[in-house]
C-alpha cells in the first residue's frame, strides 16, 4: 500500500497452520487482486500436503480444545471479537477491497462479523442445556444426553463473503468444540489472513483453526476423502463440485453440510443450524441403587 | 477386643480368636485389617443384581422338572414354628407333619428339619427320634440378638444339650452396622465353639442368620456373608423371618455368590438357607433355579440348601397333588399344622 | 453345569400366530401383489420355510411412494396433530394387545429367544409408539422453532436383528412428526412388519400413511434413490450406509444412518465383578450378538483378567442355546446361513491370527443356523476380530493397565456407537464416559434401551439420533434444523 510520502512495508500473506504462519510446502503462491482488478498481493497457495498437515494439527489440538470448559471456550471466542475490534479499520479496508464494497457496507460486514463471534461466544455454555438433558427412562437408571463435538471439521468457506461469511462458518465449528481446517475464499483471501493473525493473538490454541488460502476445488476432494476428518462444510464448494465432494465424504460417513443454492444473506440469524451438524449426542446410563 | 455392651463377657486379657481358613488366615489379625478386607470385596451393584435375580425368576419349570423341583424343595424344608405361643403340643404336631407331609401320598418326601426355639428342642428331638429329620433350634437371643454374649452362649449350650442338631444363630447387627466387624466375627466363633457337645458327639451344625432386612445394602450382605463363613459357620441364612424384607432373590443371589467364591478360594463348601417370605412353590422353584445357575448342582441337596418356611410346605404339597391328579387342589386337602 | 436339575422343554405355543402361505406388499392401506420376484422367509432355527413374500419392484416402490405422497398432502399432513397422536396411541395399544403374537412371530422369523422378543423387543416397540404419540401435538417444543414442519415422505430401510423394534424406531417418530413412510423390512425378517400392517388396518390408520415394501437390496435401493422421497433413514451395515450416503449426495434428502459398531466394554479392577460378568454376557450374547451396539470387545484390567475370564466362562456355561420358542432359551439361532458363514469365517481368522478360542460344551441342534457362545482371549488390537464387526456371539478379550490405555484402546476403532464402563468409582466413570468417542455409554449396565433416550453413533457408526426429542429432529424441518 502506498501511503503519503512513506513507502509502505507490504505483508507476505502466508498460511495459518498449527499456530504458525508458514509458506505453502509447495512453494506456490497465487496473485490476488481487489474487486477492481488491482494487485493486492501474492498469497500462499495451499497444497494437498498443507491440507494434510492442517488435519494433523487440528487433530492434535482437538483433545485440549474439546476438553476445555465451555466457559473457557466462550472467553476465548469473545477474545477473538475483542482483538478484531482493534483491527476494525484494517478489516474494513480489506473487506472493501476484496468484495468491492462501499466503506459503509464494508463496515457493516465487519461489525456483523465481530458481533457474530460475540454471539457464538455466548453459546458455548448454553448448548448442553439446550441440546442435552436427562432422559426419564422406564427403569432405575440415571440417563443423560450431552452434545459433544464431532472432531476435526473441514470448512470450505464462502467464496463471496470474505470475512462475515468466513466467521459465520468458522465460529460455530469452534463454539461447539470442534477444530477446523478452513479453505478460504479463493479470490478474496486477504481478510482471512488477517483473521488468522487475530486468532493467533487471541488465546485460540495453535492448531484449533488452520486457514489455508488456495483453491477449494483442488483441496476439497482431499479433505472430503481424508479419513481423519469427521465433518465437512461444503458451503464454499465450487459450483458443480459439491455432489462429488459429498459422495467422497460418504466413504468415511462424514457429517456434511450441503451448500446452499446461492450464497445466503450472512447477516441473518443463524440459529442452531450451523452448530448442530457438527455435534454428536452422547447418552450415558448409570444404575441408581444403594 | 471387648464387647462394648458387655465388657465382662469375655474374661481374660486376650480372647482366643480362631484364624480363618487359608488364604484368609491373617485377615482377622486386627480390626483395621478385617475392615479393609471386607471393604475390599467386590462391590455389588444393586440394580444389576436385582436384574439378574429377576431374569432367573423368569425360568419356566414345567412337567418332569417341576415334579423334581417340588420333591427336592420338600426335602429341603426346615419346617418352622417360632412363636411365643409355641407349646410341646404344637411342636409334636409339626414333627408329625415333617414325618408325613401328605397323608394322602406316602411317596411324599420328608422335610429336612424341624426348626423351633431352643427350649422346645428336646420335644422335637423326642418326636423325631429315628426319622433322620434334624432338629434345628434358634438361639443367641433370637431374633434380635440383643443380649450379652454370655447369655447368648448359654442359650446355645442349652439348645445343644436339649438335642438340637443344628443351631440357627443371629449375628450382632448393631455391631455390624457400627463397623465392629471383628466383634461380629468373634461372637460367631464363640457360638461355634458352644455348638460342640460335652458327650463327645458330633457338634451341632451352625447356621448364621445375617438378618439381611436390617443390613439394607447388598454390599453389607456380601460382607456379612464373608464374616460368617470365615468364622466357621456351616450355613449362612438370610433372615429370622421376623423382619421384612426377608429372603429376597437378590439377597439370595449375593449370598450364593459368596459361598461360591468362598469354596473356590478355600475349598470349603458352605450351605445356604433363605428364610422368611418364601410362601409359594413358585418362590421355591425360583430359588432352586438360582442355586442351579449360580453355584450349581453341588448345592442342590438338603445338606447344603434349606428353606426356612412354614406355609411353603402346604403350597408345595398342593402343587404336588395337582401334578399327580391333574387337577387343582385346595387348602382342605393338606393338613393344618 | 448341572445334571440333576434339567429343565424340561417349555415351548411357547405357536398356535397364537397364523402365518399365511404368501404375503403381498402393503401399499395404500391394502395388501397387493408385488411385481418383483417373490422370495421365501425361513425359520433360522429349523430352516423351515415360513412363507413366500412378494418382492417390490421399482414400479411397486413407485406406487408406494406415490401413495405415501398422497397421504401426506391430503390426509396426514393436514390432520390435527392431536389426532395423529391418537392414531399412534392406538397403535401402541394394539401392539400391547397382540404382544404375544408379535413375540412368537418375531422369534420364528428371526431366531431370537422368545424371552427376548417377549420381554424386550415387543414391549419396547409399543413403548416407542406410546412415547412418540405424545409428541405429535407438541412439536413446537422440540427445539426447532415455533412451527416445525414434517419433511414429507420418509424412505426407511431396517435390519433383521430387531425387525419390529427397528420398525418402531423408524415409523413412530416419522408419523408423530407428520411424515408418511415407505418402509422396507429386511429380506430375512419381513413377517412382523407385515403383521404390523394389519395393526395399521385395525387402527384405521388412513391409507398410505404407512406403506411396507418387502424385498432385498434392490428394493431398498429403489426406496432410497426414489426422487419423491424427502427423508432417508437407514439402520444396517456401515458398508451399505456408505453407499446410501453416496446415493443421496447432491439431493435435498435428509439422511440419518445407524450403522455398525465394535463397542469396548471396559472392566476396571474395582468393578462390581458379578454384575460386570452379567453385563459382559448381556453385552455380547443378547440377541446372539446380532446387535450393532454389542459389547464385542472386552477390555479388562490386567490385574483381574484371570478372575474375570474364569467367572465369565463359568457363567457362559449356564447359557442355554437352542429352540428360540423355548421360554428358557438364552441364545437362539443365527439369523441366516449367510450370517453364520461370516461369523465362522471371522472366528477362523481369529484363531489363525493367534487368539485363543473358547466355547462351552453345548449341544447345537442338527438343523438350522447355530453358533455357540464364543470367547477369544489373547486378542491383540491388531487382530481382525478386535476390529471387524462380527455381528455374532463372539467376544474378543483384550487387556489394559491404566485408564488412559483403556480409553486409547476403546477409541481405537473407526466405529463409535456404544461403550461400557464397569467401576465402583463415580468420578472415574464420569471421566472415562467423557473421553469415550461413542454415542451411548453404559456405565455399570449394558444394552439398555428406552424411547426417551437418544441412541446413535459417532464416527462411522452413523449420524443422527433415534429416541427422545433428538429422534424427532430427524423428521422435522424448522428455522433451526439442519
Write up this protein.
Chain B: InterPro entries: Aldolase_TIM, DeoC, DeoC/FbaB/LacD_aldolase. Chain B: Belongs to the DeoC/FbaB aldolase family. DeoC type 2 subfamily. Chain B: It catalyses: 2-deoxy-D-ribose 5-phosphate = D-glyceraldehyde 3-phosphate + acetaldehyde. Chain B: Residues 1-24 are annotated as: Disordered. Chain B: Its EC number is 4.1.2.4. The complex is a heterotrimer of chains A (290), B (337) and C (482). Chain A has 290 residues and is α/β, with parallel strands linked by helices. Chain A is built from nine helices and twelve strands. Chain A has helices spanning 48-67, 70-86, 88-99, 103-121, 127-131, 164-175, 190-200, 216-225, 242-250, and strands at residues 2-3, 6-7, 29-33, 39-44, 133-134, 141-149, 152-156, 179-183, 209-212, 231-233, 255-257, 279-287. In chain A, helix 1 packs across helix 8 and helix 3 packs across helix 4 (103-121). Chain B has one domain (46-329): TIM Barrel, CATH 3.20.20.70. Chain B has 13 helices and eight strands. Chain B has helices at 31-39, 46-56, 63-75, 88-99, 121-128, 149-161, 173-177, 181-194, 212-215, 218-230, 249-266, 281-294, 311-325; strands spanning 77-80, 113-117, 134-138, 166-170, 205-209, 235-237, 271-273, 307-309. Chain B has an eight-stranded parallel beta sheet. The longest helix of chain B has 18 residues, at 249-266. Chain B is globular. Mean pLDDT of chain B is 94; it is low at 1-16. Chain C is α/β, with parallel strands linked by helices and 482 residues long. Chain C has helices at residues 58-76, 81-97, 99-110, 114-135, 163-176, 191-202, 217-225, 238-248, 273-285, 305-316, 337-352, 403-411, 426-435, 468-473, and strands spanning 22-23, 25-27, 30-32, 39-43, 48-53, 149-150, 153-157, 180-184, 210-212, 231-235, 254-258, 264-267, 297-301, 356-358, 374-377, 394-400, 418-422, 440-443, 462-463, 476-477. Chain C has a seven-stranded mixed beta sheet with strand order 14-15-16-13-12-17-18, with helices on both faces. Strand 12 of chain A pairs parallel with strand 18 (440-443) of chain C, so a sheet runs across the interface.
Amino acid at each position: 500500500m502506498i501511503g503519503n510520502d512513506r513507502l509502505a512495508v507490504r505483508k507476505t500473506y502466508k498460511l495459518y497452520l498449527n499456530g504458525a504462519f508458514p509458506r505453502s510446502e509447495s512453494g506456490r503462491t497465487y496473485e490476488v487482486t481487489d474487486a477492481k482488478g488491482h494487485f493486492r498481493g501474492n498469497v500462499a497457495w495451499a497444497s494437498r500436503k498443507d491440507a494434510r498437515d492442517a488435519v494433523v494439527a487440528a487433530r492434535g489440538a482437538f483433545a485440549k480444545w474439546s476438553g476445555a470448559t465451555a466457559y473457557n471456550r466462550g472467553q476465548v471466542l469473545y477474545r477473538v471479537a475483542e482483538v478484531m475490534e482493534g483491527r476494525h479499520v484494517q478489516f474494513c479496508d480489506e473487506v472493501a477491497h476484496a468484495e468491492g464494497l462501499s466503506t459503509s457496507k464494508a463496515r457493516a460486514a465487519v461489525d456483523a462479523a465481530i458481533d457474530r463471534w460475540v454471539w457464538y461466544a455466548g453459546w458455548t455454555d448454553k448448548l448442553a442445556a439446550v441440546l442435552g438433558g436427562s432422559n426419564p427412562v422406564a427403569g432405575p437408571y440415571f440417563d443423560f444426553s450431552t452434545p459433544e463435538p464431532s472432531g476435526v471439521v473441514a470448512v470450505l468457506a464462502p467464496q463471496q463473503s470474505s470475512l462475515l461469511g468466513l466467521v459465520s462458518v468458522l465460529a460455530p465449528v469452534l463454539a461447539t468444540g470442534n477444530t477446523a481446517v478452513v479453505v478460504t475464499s479463493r479470490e478474496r483471501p486477504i481478510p482471512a489472513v488477517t483473521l488468522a493473525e487475530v486468532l493467533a493473538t487471541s488465546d485460540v490454541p495453535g492448531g484449533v483453526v488452520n486457514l489455508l488460502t488456495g483453491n477449494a476445488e483442488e483441496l476439497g476432494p482431499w479433505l472430503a476423502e481424508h479419513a481423519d476428518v469427521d465433518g465437512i462444510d461444503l458451503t464454499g464448494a465450487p459450483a458443480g463440485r459439491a455432489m462429488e465432494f459429498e459422495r467422497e465424504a460418504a466413504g468415511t460417513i462424514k457429517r456434511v453440510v450441503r451448500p446452499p443454492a446461492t450464497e445466503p444473506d450472512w447477516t441473518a440469524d443463524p440459529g442452531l443450524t450451523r452448530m448442530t451438524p457438527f455435534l454428536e449426542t452422547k447418552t450415558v446410563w448409570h444404575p441408581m441403587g444403594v | 477386643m471387648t464387647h462394648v455392651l458387655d465388657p465382662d463377657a469375655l474374661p481374660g486379657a486376650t480372647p482366643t480368636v480362631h484364624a480363618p481358613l487359608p488364604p484368609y488366615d491373617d485377615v482377622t489379625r486386627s480390626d483395621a485389617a478385617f475392615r479393609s478386607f471386607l471393604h475390599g470385596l467386590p462391590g455389588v451393584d444393586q440394580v444389576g443384581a436385582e436384574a439378574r435375580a429377576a431374569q432367573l425368576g423368569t425360568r419356566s419349570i414345567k412337567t418332569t422338572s417341576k415334579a423334581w423341583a417340588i420333591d427336592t424343595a420338600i426335602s429341603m424344608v426346615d419346617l418352622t414354628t417360632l412363636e411365643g405361643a409355641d407349646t410341646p403340643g404344637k411342636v409334636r404336631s409339626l414333627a408329625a407333619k415333617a414325618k408325613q407331609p401328605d397323608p394322602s401320598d406316602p411317596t411324599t418326601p420328608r422335610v429336612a428339619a424341624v426348626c423351633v426355639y431352643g427350649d422346645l428342642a428336646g420335644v422335637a428331638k423326642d418326636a423325631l427320634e429315628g426319622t433322620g429329620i434334624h432338629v434345628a433350634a434358634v438361639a443367641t437371643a433370637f431374633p434380635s440378638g440383643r443380649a450379652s454374649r454370655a447369655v447368648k452362649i448359654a442359650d446355645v449350650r442349652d439348645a445343644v444339650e436339649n438335642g438340637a442338631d443344628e443351631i440357627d444363630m443371629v449375628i450382632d447387627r448393631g455391631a455390624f452396622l457400627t463397623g465392629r466387624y471383628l466383634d461380629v466375627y468373634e461372637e460367631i466363633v464363640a457360638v461355634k465353639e458352644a455348638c460342640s457337645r460335652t458327650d463327645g458327639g458330633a457338634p451341632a451344625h451352625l447356621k448364621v442368620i445375617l438378618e439381611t432386612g436390617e443390613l439394607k445394602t447388598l454390599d453389607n450382605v456380601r460382607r456379612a456373608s464373608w464374616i460368617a463363613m470365615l468364622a466357621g459357620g456351616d450355613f449362612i441364612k438370610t433372615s429370622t423371618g421376623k423382619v421384612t424384607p426377608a429372603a429376597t432373590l437378590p439377597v439370595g443371589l449375593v449370598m450364593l455368590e459368596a459361598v461360591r467364591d468362598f469354596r473356590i478360594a478355600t475349598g470349603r463348601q458352605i450351605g445356604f438357607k433363605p428364610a422368611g417370605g418364601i410362601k409359594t412353590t413358585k418362590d421355591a422353584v425360583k430359588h432352586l433355579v438360582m442355586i442351579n445357575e449360580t453355584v450349581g448342582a453341588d448345592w442342590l441337596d438338603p445338606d447344603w440348601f434349606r428353606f426356612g418356611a412354614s406355609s411353603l410346605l402346604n403350597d408345595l404339597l398342593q402343587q404336588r397333588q395337582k401334578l399327580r391328579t391333574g387337577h387343582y387342589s385346595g387348602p382342605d386337602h393338606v393338613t393344618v399344622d | 453345569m448341572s445334571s440333576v436339575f434339567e429343565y424340561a422343554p417349555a415351548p411357547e405355543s405357536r398356535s397364537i400366530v397364523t402365518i399365511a402361505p404368501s404375503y403381498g406388499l402393503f401399499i395404500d392401506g391394502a395388501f397387493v401383489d408385488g411385481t418383483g420376484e417373490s422370495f421365501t422367509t425361513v425359520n433360522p432355527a429349523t430352516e423351515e420355510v415360513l412363507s413366500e413374500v412378494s418382492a417390490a419392484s421399482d414400479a411397486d416402490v413407485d406406487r408406494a411412494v406415490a401413495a405415501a405422497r398422497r397421504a401426506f398432502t391430503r390426509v396426514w399432513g393436514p390432520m390435527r396433530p392431536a389426532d395423529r397422536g391418537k392414531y399412534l396411541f392406538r397403535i401402541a395399544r394394539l401392539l400391547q394387545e397382540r404382544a404375544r403374537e408379535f413375540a412368537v412371530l418375531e422369534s420364528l422369523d428371526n431366531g431370537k429367544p422368545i424371552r427376548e422378543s417377549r420381554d424386550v423387543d415387543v414391549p419396547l416397540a409399543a413403548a416407542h409408539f406410546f412415547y412418540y404419540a405424545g409428541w405429535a401435538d407438541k412439536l413446537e417444543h422440540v427445539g426447532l422453532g415455533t412451527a416445525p414442519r414434517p419433511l414429507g415422505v420418509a424412505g426407511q430401510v431396517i435390519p433383521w436383528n430387531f425387525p419390529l423394534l427397528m420398525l418402531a424406531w423408524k415409523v413412530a417418530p416419522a408419523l408423530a412428526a407428520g411424515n408418511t413412510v415407505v418402509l422396507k423390512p429386511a429380506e430375512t425378517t419381513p413377517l412382523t412388519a407385515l403383521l404390523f400392517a394389519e395393526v395399521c388396518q385395525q387402527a384405521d390408520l388412513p391409507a398410505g400413511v404407512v406403506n411396507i415394501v418387502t424385498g432385498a437390496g434392490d428394493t431398498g435401493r429403489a426406496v432410497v434413490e426414489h426422487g419423491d422421497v424427502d427423508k432417508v433413514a437407514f439402520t444396517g451395515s456401515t458398508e451399505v450406509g456408505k453407499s446410501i450416503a453416496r446415493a443421496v449426495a447432491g439431493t435435498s434428502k435428509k439422511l440419518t444412518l445407524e450403522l455398525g459398531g465394535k463397542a469396548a466394554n471396559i472392566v476396571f479392577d474395582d468393578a462390581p465383578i458379578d454384575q460386570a460378568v452379567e453385563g459382559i454376557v448381556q453385552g455380547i450374547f443378547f440377541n446372539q450378538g446380532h446387535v450393532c451396539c454389542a459389547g464385542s470387545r472386552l477390555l479388562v484390567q490386567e490385574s483381574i483378567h484371570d478372575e474375570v475370564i474364569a467367572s465369565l466362562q463359568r457363567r457362559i456355561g449356564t447359557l442355554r442355546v437352542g429352540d428360540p420358542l423355548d421360554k428358557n432359551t438364552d441364545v437362539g439361532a443365527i439369523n441366516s446361513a449367510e450370517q453364520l458363514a461370516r461369523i465362522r469365517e471371522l472366528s477362523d481368522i481369529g484363531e489363525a491370527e493367534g487368539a485363543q478360542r473358547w466355547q462351552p460344551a453345548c449341544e447345537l441342534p442338527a438343523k438350522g443356523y447355530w453358533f455357540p457362545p464364543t470367547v477369544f482371549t489373547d486378542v491383540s488390537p491388531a487382530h481382525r476380530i478386535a476390529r471387524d464387526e462380527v455381528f455374532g456371539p463372539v467376544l474378543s478379550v483384550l487387556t489394559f493397565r491404566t485408564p488412559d490405555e483403556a480409553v486409547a484402546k476403546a477409541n481405537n476403532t473407526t466405529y463409535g456407537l456404544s461403550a461400557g464402563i464397569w467401576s465402583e468409582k463415580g468420578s472415574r466413570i464420569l471421566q472415562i464416559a467423557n473421553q469415550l468417542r461413542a454415542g451411548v455409554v453404559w456405565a455399570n449396565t449394558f444394552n439398555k434401551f428406552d424411547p426417551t433416550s437418544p441412541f446413535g453413533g459417532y464416527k462411522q457408526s452413523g449420524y443422527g439420533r433415534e429416541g427422545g426429542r433428538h429422534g424427532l429432529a430427524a423428521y422435522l424441518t424448522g428455522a433451526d434444523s439442519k
